[in-house]
Design goal:
- The chain has about 190 residues and is mainly α.
- It has a single domain (about 45-185), classed as Tetracycline Repressor, domain 2 (Orthogonal Bundle).
- The protein is about 70% helix and about 0% strand.
- Helix 3 runs antiparallel to helix 4 (about 70-85), helix 4 (about 70-85) packs across helix 8 (about 170-185) and helix 6 packs across helix 7 (about 135-155).
- The N and C termini lie far apart (about 55 Å).
- About 35% of the residues are buried.
Length: about 190
């Protein structure tokens, strides 16, 4: 049911998604969805949680694929976040912009924590290696998350189209490199002098 809901959301957007259309596609009665979810908001919340886990998996894969270099890993994680928003714009909007998603739902809270946890662990790793500034990794993760999310939101809204199709990665990498330069420990690897 959730996979079909995600597909329908990608086609119609979160605002155009209906339980009635989902039931029709699944070949079940309209009331069938209520056996699994209390209402449309509960289903959208489950879809959003699933999206957070998918986003986390994409970020994790990008980090692993970037090797051991801190800067390469940071840029790869940021671009993976933006790519998710571009590849699945309606799902991304459902995850973070839908008023019907219950941000206090335990499943959603856990899924967003898993996604944010990847960034926190990245920061801890950089601190252990003496490359990133000292401080509470959870606090430091906030501007990192905001940068990822802001660029993803802007990109999915088409804000960078005027720069040309090939410019997006450079824009995203440049913004993330500037943020990373501010997080590097004094005298640490790669610090601009």
């Amino acid at each position: 049911m959730l996979e079909e809901a995600i597909e329908l959301i990608q086609e119609a957007g979160p605002e155009g998604f209906t339980l009635r259309e989902l039931a029709r596609r699944l070949g079940v009665s309209h009331a069938a969805s209520y056996r699994h979810f209390a209402d449309r908001g509960a289903l959208l919340t489950a879809v959003a949680a699933l999206g957070c886990d998918e986003l986390a998996a994409g970020i994790r894969a990008a980090l692993e694929g970037a090797g051991d270099d801190l800067r390469a890993r940071f840029l790869a994680a940021g671009y993976a976040y933006v790519r998710f928003a571009l590849d699945k714009p309606a799902h991304f909007r459902t995850m973070f912009e839908s008023a019907e998603v219950d941000s206090g739902d335990a499943g959603y809270v856990e899924a967003t924590a898993r996604c944010r946890g990847i960034l926190i662990e990245f920061i801890r790793e950089g601190q252990r290696r003496g490359l990133l500034v000292e401080g509470d990794p959870e606090v430091i993760a906030t501007p990192v998350w905001a940068m990822h999310h802001g660029l993803a939101s802007l990109a999915s809204a088409g804000a960078f189209k005027a720069h040309g199709a090939g410019a997006l990665k450079g824009i995203v990498d440049g913004a993330h490199a500037a943020l990373l330069d501010g997080l590097l420990a004094r005298g640490g690897w790669g610090r601009a002098q």
